[in-house]
Design brief:
It holds the Pfam family PHD. Keywords: Coiled coil, Metal-binding, Zinc, Zinc-finger. This is PHD-type domain-containing protein. It contains 13 helices and twelve strands. It has about 325 residues and is α+β, with helices and mostly antiparallel strands.
């Protein structure tokens, strides 16, 4: 650290040493002797004699022979505050750098994952198996999107009807459709559940959660509130138009599947006469659902009347079935 002793011995010439007296900041006494016992603040560069600092000669000798940084009282307070601030800045800088590194890694991974046609075919096949999708249905999705002017894979379309389809695009549409169905698989849409007319949003949400739990209870299913990830009324709130469809995000698909199996319990309650439950379908699935019901209606019109034609099955394998009356 800087003291009168080691400062003077490090100067260039003896003349400069003599012309460089130190003045104690506190007592304002001038010290010209190079053996004078003063400490220099590392920040403000002011000087302080050991008498004003109430330090012993031994303490001075220890400080003058060490690399310890010494600050006067006012500067020490500023330095300590800066240390805390600097630590926060360093931490924030580390977070920013970590984020940048992660983004760079993601970009590098994306570049590495660029693949040729055969690899894309393999990815689509894996997605079909992973999400338990019907392969023919995935091909239908691709075909429907192409015929409707959507972006469909050149690669996928090569495997459909000899590869001749209009408006061929990329495989992205098919994969996005599969992924969107995966994100919706735990969801339900409930129609006909009475909506609370309170203007307080939280009160309306709590009312919906209570009705959902009661619906499951009436279906002989115990549903903890923790298993309801989120509820959402579809459409803009309008006090004059209540009973909007209720979208329910569940944590697992098990409760949802059990509810569909137990819907016959619900039908026995008069209060649920106008209540219907459906899957949360993608746009493509809704269009397919509409097509299937149109087909069922035509079959019903052409039937003698001994059978009913309904659309049944999970979202990934919906079909028209014939049921005897």
């Amino acid at each position: 650290m800087a003291t009168r002793r080691n400062k003077s011995t490090s100067n260039a010439t003896s003349d400069q040493k003599k012309e460089d007296p130190w003045e104690c900041k506190i007592c304002q006494k001038i010290y010209k002797n190079e053996d004078a016992k003063l400490l220099e603040c590392q920040r403000c560069k002011d000087h302080f004699c050991i008498k004003c600092l109430n330090k012993t000669k031994t303490e001075y000798d220890i400080l003058s022979n060490s690399d310890t940084m010494w600050f006067c009282a006012p500067c020490r307070q500023v330095v300590e505050e800066h240390i805390v601030t600097d630590l926060k800045i360093e931490e924030r800088c580390r977070e920013i750098m970590d984020n940048y590194e992660q983004r760079i890694n993601n970009i590098e991974i994306a570049i590495e994952k660029k693949c040729d046609k055969e690899e894309v075919r393999e990815i689509v096949s894996q997605e079909i198996i992973k999400h338990k999708c019907d392969e023919e249905r995935v091909r239908e999705i691709a075909k429907e999107e192409a015929l409707n002017g959507g972006a469909v894979a050149n690669i996928v379309s090569e495997d459909i009807e000899g590869g001749v389809l209009p408006n061929q695009g990329t495989v992205t549409t098919v994969l996005e459709e599969i992924n969107e169905r995966k994100t919706r698989e735990n969801n339900l849409i409930i129609f006909g559940i009475t909506e609370n007319e309170s203007e307080n949003k939280q009160e309306r949400i709590e009312h919906d959660v209570e009705n959902i739990v009661q619906l499951f209870k009436d279906a002989k299913i115990t549903l903890d509130i923790e298993n309801i990830r989120k509820t959402q009324r579809l459409g803009k709130y309008d006090k004059e138009k209540t009973n909007r469809p209720l979208l329910v995000h569940l944590k697992s698909i098990d409760s949802k599947l059990t509810l569909f199996r137990n819907m016959h319990y619900i039908r026995s309650y008069p209060k649920y006469q106008k209540v219907n439950v459906s899957n949360d379908l993608t746009k493509s699935e809704r269009e397919e659902e509409k097509r299937l019901w149109t087909e069922a209606k035509k079959l019903q019109e052409n039937n003698s009347g001994d059978f009913l034609f309904k659309v049944r099955g999970p979202p990934w394998a919906r079909k028209v079935v014939k049921i005897k009356k």
